[in-house]
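Deliverable D5.2: sample structural annotation.
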Amino acid sequence: MSTGELVGLLSTALLAGLLIGAGAVRSSAARRARIEQSRRDRLDAYAGWLAARRSLSRASISLVAAFRALAAERPDAPLFSLRTAEAQRCRAAWCNGVRDLDLAEAALLVRCRTWRVTLDRAGADVLQAAIDGSDAEVRALVASLQAADRQVEETVRGVLEVEFAPAHRHAVLARLAQLSAGIKNVTDRWVRR
C-alpha cells in the first residue's frame, strides 16, 4: 500500500470517527436534554399535586366554616347577605379545588408512568355531615384533612427520594461512559488497521 493510499485511508477513518463521535455527542446531549425535561415535568407534576391537595383541604375547611356560620345566622340579620356571599365564594373555591386536584392527578398519571398512589379526598357528603354536625365532627374533619395532607407530603417525599436520588443520575452517567468507551474502542481498531 502506498503512502498516499495509507494517508487517504487514515484521513477517511479519522473523518468517519469524527462524524460518528459528533453524532454520538449530539445524540447524547439531546437524550440528556429530554431526560432533564422529563425530570422537570415530573417534579412539576408532583408539586402541582401536593399544592392542589393542600388547597382543597383549606377550601374544604373554609366551606364548612362558612356554611356553619350561615346556618347560625338568622335570615333577617344584617350580616345574612354577607354570610351568604361568603358561603358561595367558599363553594366556588371548593369546586375549583376539586377541579385543580383532578387536573393535577391527571398530570401525574400522564407524566409519571409509575404513579400508582390514590389517596381519598373529602367529598361533598363528608363536608355536608360536618356542616350539619357538632363541633367535634368539624374537629374530626379538620384532623383527617391535616392527616391526609401529611400523608401526601410523605408520599411525595418518598417518591422524590427514590426517583430523583443522586444514584439514579450516576447510573445515567455510567451508561454514557460505557457508550463513550465503546466508540473509542471502535475508533482505536480502525486506526490500528
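Annotation notes: The chain has one domain: 43-181. The CA atoms of residues 83 and 161 lie 45 Å apart.
The annotation will be released with the project's public dataset once the embargo ends.
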